[in-house]
Amino acid sequence: MQDILFTPYPLSDDVELKNRIMMAPLTRCMASDELVPTQAMVEYYERRADAGLIISEATIIRPDAQGYPNVPGIFTQAQIEGWRKVTDAVHAKGGKMFCQLWHVGRVAHPHFFGGEVVGASAIGLQGTVPRMRELTYQVPKALSTEEIAQVVADYAKAAENAIEAGFDGVEIHGANGYLIDQFLHHSANQRTDEYGGTAQNRARFALEVVDAVSQRIGAGRTALRVSPGAYFLLEPGDEQDTHTFDYLLNELNKRTLAYLHLGIFDDAMEFDYLGGKASAYLRERYQGHLVGVGSYTPEQGAQAIADKRFDIVAIGRPFIANPDLVSKLKAGQQLTAYSEEMLQQLY
Ligand code: FNR
User: Fold this and answer.
1) What predicted TM-score, i.e. pTM, was given to this entire model?
2) Given 178, 195, 247, 296, which residue is catalytic?
3) Does any ligand 1 atom lie closer than 6 A to the CB of residue 288?
4) Contacts of residue 111, Cβ cutoff 8 Å, sequence gap at least 6
5) Is 178 a catalytic residue?
6) Please, what are the domains in the chain?
C-alpha cells in the first residue's frame, strides 16, 4: 500500500516531485535575532531532503507580519542569503523546497517590530502570544485599500526574493487564522468596501495575492494553503464562510497553481457548514492537485491517496521526530513517536 507514496508526482511543468510525501511547514522559532536562518536550520532541512517537497516553516514577508519570536523572514538581503544556504544544502541532497510566505495580520505584536498591528478589520483576538504570555493581542488597524495594495506587492516581492534564495516555489500561507484567512472568514472581516460584505469581496485579497505572486514567479511555482474550516485563531465559522470558499475555489480552478494545501491539525474534524471534513469539501470543489494533512500516519496517507481523497500527503510532527522518515518507511522501520519536548531543539 505504501508504495503509492514513492511514485513521482508532477506538480507543474516546473516542478516534479520524486515522491508524494511533503514535509508540512513547521514553525520552530530558531532563526537569529535578525530573522536569518542559522547553520542549525541548514542542517535540519538538509536531513529531511528525502521528502518529495519540503515546505519551509512560515516565513514573514515584512516586519509587521511577525507574531512569534525568532521566525525567519524573506525581506532582507541577509535573510535571502541565509535561505540560500538552506536551499543549496537541500538541492545537493536531491531535495526540493518551497518557501511558505506569511503575514499573521492581527496575530502580530508590536513587541517584535515596534509598529502598528494590521488586519482585515479592527477586531482583536482574545489572549496572549504563545511562548510570551506577558504580551496581550492588540486590536488591529483595518488596512486601507492603499495599504492592501502594498501588502499584495510585498507578497510578490517576497516571492521574488524566495526564488533568488533558491527555493523551487512558494506556498502562500492563507490558512490557520492569519492575515489572508482573516479576510476570508467573516468573523474577522466586517469590511464594507470591496474587500468585505460578500463572498466575492472576502475572497478578493487572497486572489490578488495569488495573482500577484503567480505573475511574478509563475503559477507552476505558486501554491496556496487554506483552512475552509475555521479551527485556529478564529471564531467558529458558518455558511457565510462556505459561500466565500465556494467562490474562491471556483476562481482557483481557473488558475493552474502547483497545488492547494489544506491547513488543519486533525483531518478527522468535521464542520457542519462544510458538510463534513475540510479535505472532502476541497476535493469536491477543487480540480487541481490537492495536498491532504492532519494527523495522518504515512500508511493512512497512502490509503487516502489510493482512495483519491487527495494526491499528496503532508506530514508534520512525525517529520520532527524522524528526520529520516522517508528512508525509514522504505526500509519498513518503525517511526519514532513525536513528543512536544522535541520542539526544544532542531535535530
Ligand atoms: C505547525 N503547523 C504549521 N502550519 C503552517 O501552515 N505553517 C507553520 O509554520 C506551521 N507551524 C507549525 C509548528 C508546529 C510545531 C506544529 C505542530 C504545526 C501545522 C502543520 O503544518 C500541520 O498542518 C499540522 O502539524 C498537522 O499535521 P501533522 O503534524 O499531524 O502531520
Assistant:
1) 0.98
2) 178
3) no
4) 129, 132, 135
5) yes
6) 2-344 (3.20.20.70)
